[in-house]
Amino acid sequence: MSGLEHSTIPLDEFDATLRPFLTEVSSSSLGGTVLSCSDDFFASKDNLIKPSPSLSMKGQFGPNGALYDGWESRRHNPTFDWVIIRLATALTSLSHVDIDTSHFSGNECPASQVFALRLSSTEVENKNLKLSPKDPRWTEILGEVELGPNSRHIFKLGPKALEGAWSAVLVRMIPDGGMARFRAYGKPQAPALLDTLPHPSVEPLNLLSPLLSARIVACSDANFSPPGNLLLPGRGTDMSDGWETRRSQVNKGKYAPGGPLHGKERSEWVVARLAGTGTVSYVEVDTAYHPGNYPVACKVEAILSDKDLPGEEEKWTTIVDKKPLGAHRQHWFDRERTVSPTAVFSHVRLSIFPDGGLKRLRIFGHPLRPHTASAAPAVPILPALPLTPETFAPYGQVIQGFSFGSSAPKGKDVTIANQGTAFKFHRMANVQETYEPGALVRGGPYVGVTRAKKRLDISQGAQVTVTTLERHRHTNQAFIPMGKGVQPGGQALGEGGAYLAVAALNGPDDKPDMSTARAFLGTAAQGISYNMGVWHHSLLTVDGDLDYCLVEAQIGDWSVLDCEKHTPEEPYAIVQVPPYTASPGPKATSKGKPLANGHSTYEKLNGLVSSLPLVNGLNGHGPSGPTVPVPISREGFAPFGQVLHAYPDPETRYEGMDIQVAPDGMATKYARLAEIKSTYPEELGAVTGISVFRATPKVGLERGKVFDIRYMERHPYTSQAFVPMGKAEWKGKGEEKLDEGGQMLVIVAKGGPDDRPDPSTVEAFIMPSSVGISYNPGVWHHPSLILDHTLDLACIEAQISTGVPEGDERDCELLSWEEGEAFGQVSVPALA
């Protein structure tokens, strides 16, 4: 026996029973690459390993002749043409090949032959490696086989291919012609199994990676796209490269009376075999590109079994209980605390409810031998996972903007706002308090600012021991990272900044229930609001200093009514923080840097704006010239509302300011900078909440030009605060970072005797991204105007309606001058 024995497999049989459960180790979607070829004059060699089927390009021509979605060489080769493909994984067996000549008829390659080669460990590390067709290590794994036109040819390979460990293949076209696709299938080598769990600082592997030998073994339905896509790297390109089931209906199809699943909860499932055996630390479920067909919820179970497909009747362990999902987003779920961190599994089963589509499933853990004697750590280890609305939902709300309106958490209304310049994500969090009447002697819910110093560098990861948790029985508490522009009387904070949030629900003993404890790493583009009574660690700022907009109610006497703390004899947990560094900030400019004479850049900006050349030579506002914006300040904006920022310089603080310094001096709270006011009649049911505007620059609003004021609005019954949020991303783990920069142009006017804005009182302010404002109820102002770059604006206000299905005119009175003479003009300053 030569080991080259092969057999052909009918196409229908292969596609239905084998292909969905095989790993295509040559595919470009997994990382396969075409290194070189003898000739690709007519059609590129790179087409060979595309994941998509070959397309017909009949009737299309280029400079070299007819176009084909495949590889085609010149005519009249006396021997053969060749192509070398580096496989996606370092070492793999090879079980099947699919040689496809689709759309090549009369110019197809008449025959083919396949060789394979194993790279050395040194060569594996060389990503720019070149291989020669004359390398003596090439081993024949498929002898010369005949091919027909316009068809796929499936070959099951012999023992030599199946038992080997290969890194690359060489495919011959004999003697020349065209080949649409070449697909090699095999089983990559699994990672070496450990005898004991590694130190918690060792990052877990994706044990569901096909590059490590993980594969799908069964699924309930794959009507629209196959489950094997769940294991692919990256986040895909569109809805086609995920797993999507058909729609299901109550009492219809398999759920119909007399059907196999009648009376059962509607769900679909997929079973996958891990790369060897291992533990589970956490799970990632991605719904990218499934904005309207994502599942409502998911559940993940695991089992240790010698079978390729464990039975339904066997004992599966729930590692992620049923959890809600959102649209077009990644979700990270910690392992249920009831599951031992040393438990070893071989398979996972993902169930989705009731049906729908997912993009990716990833299981992170450590390869470990079954039945090892690894002891669970004495103190629980909590992985700090990316912050997402669904995973944080038991403890509160996540406050952030999204690139797609459809990505908002389920149940959150999204509208187009500000004359089409913004998405408004309504009521991402509500503002609530339950203090006894009369207890809040200093005022109700308010907006403040907390400046927090970096407590930890996590560029290489870190561990944080949790010894104390706290709760606020009578108020929710929101922290919203602010932008990093210049500030009145100060300088911009340095780059970076993120925060660690640790939360747990209350237990039956009125103490933290650590079985519910979870840890999250939030970026500077995400805020959080803790529900009343939720136990949590004080916010830990990492990576860089941050200013937070703070929304809460407080008596302010340091009593347990405001904040109750609990410190057990032994630590609650250890949080394992992964390596994180915020992406680089803006390119070097004079912005945010001290000047040589010691003045702040805010003072420099003030001088530049006040000396702007003006239309008609006027400096100020009035009927004879445009209004000139000035840098925003507490004093200048006082007739219209309050300015929100930190006051690190004691000389800039005003009399009566409520300043609270943390015991360790690492954080300073500037409380009650603005009261949250609502005078709606109670029967109207207005809700005070925190929304997010993803606000973009308005067409016609340009630096160095005059802007016509054609809209003014007011909110008669509520204050309205706008706070520019930070810009950041955790690369590959959530929303992409917005472009750096961005300021607000704030336009206000006093009311006239006719109960309309008085054009003679128009004032304008430039507001950097590190500063927020709060309009007093009834103040006339232009809808938010953004300069230069998109900003996420946290908005704290009361509303009767979110605008869905329709708005309520009592929330906002809008006046427009769309035709004819504008209400006023503003001279927009050019950038220095």
TrEMBL record:
It holds the Pfam family Ureidogly_lyase. CDD domains: cupin_UAH. Residues 31-188, 214-367 form the Allantoicase domain. One of its GO terms (molecular function) is ureidoglycolate hydrolase activity. Gene3D superfamilies: Galactose-binding domain-like, Ureidoglycolate hydrolase. GO terms for biological process: allantoin catabolic process; purine nucleobase metabolic process. InterPro entries: Allantoicase, Allantoicase_dom, Galactose-bd-like_sf, RmlC_Cupin_sf, UAH_cupin, Ureidogly_lyase, Ureidoglycolate_lyase_dom_sf. Coiled coil: none annotated. SUPFAM superfamilies: Galactose-binding domain-like, RmlC-like cupins. Keywords: Lyase, Purine metabolism. It catalyses: (S)-ureidoglycolate = urea + glyoxylate. Belongs to the allantoicase family. NCBIfam families: allantoicase. Homodimer. This is Allantoicase. The lineage of its organism: Eukaryota, Fungi, Dikarya, Basidiomycota, Agaricomycotina.
